[in-house]
C-alpha cells in the first residue's frame, strides 16, 4: 500500500465543496471554511452567506478586484456574485437563527461521536475574544459540516467519545472533514465514509478517540492532476 497522504487545508476544502448540492444556501465560518468558496463547482448555483453581512459571496478577490472593505469572515477580500446583497449584523444573524441556511461549515477543535462540537477559545494569542456567531450557526442550519485536522500538532485526537473543551453546540455535527478522512455522525456514532489513499482503517482508528464504523463500501480519497482531492 502507498504511503498515506495528509490533505492540505485547500484539499479538505475541495472535498467539502464537492459535497455542496445545487441550490444550497451555505454559511462559511472563520478560518479553513472560507477556502470552500474557491473550489465550488462552477456549474452549480450555490448561495454563500458570511456572518459579517454578505449574501451572495464569491471566491477570494485577486489583484485589482480586492476591496479592503469587502471581506469574508476570515478578513480576506472577496468578490460578489451578481445579485449579492450587503446587510447589517442584525439581519445577517436573523438569517442564521431563522433556519434559512442549508449548511453551516465551521472549523473545530473537537467533535464527539454524538455530534457535540467544541470550536472556540479565548486564551490563544490570535483568538477572537468571544464565541462570535458559532453557536447561532451550529444550531440554525439544517446541516453542520466541520473542517479540522484529525489530530493536534502533538498527536492528540480531535474526534472523541466526549468533548473535553467547552461546547459550542450539542449534537449538531453531521459530517467531519479532516486531513485523513470524511466521517459522518450518525446514530451517536462515527461512520467512516472515506479515507485517504494509503491508510488503513486500523491506522485511522489509532488516531481516533471513539470507534469508527464502516457501513457498506469504504471509499478512498485520492489526488489528481495538480493535487485536486476527490472521493472515489
UniProtKB/TrEMBL annotation:
Pfam families: CoA_trans. It comes from the Bacteria. Keywords: Transferase. InterPro entries: 3-oxoacid_CoA-transf_B, CoA_trans_fam_I, CoA_transf_AS, NagB/RpiA_transferase-like. The keyword Transferase applies. GO terms for molecular function: CoA-transferase activity. Belongs to the 3-oxoacid CoA-transferase subunit B family. This is 3-oxoadipate CoA-transferase. The lineage of its organism: Bacteria, Pseudomonadati, Pseudomonadota, Betaproteobacteria, Burkholderiales.
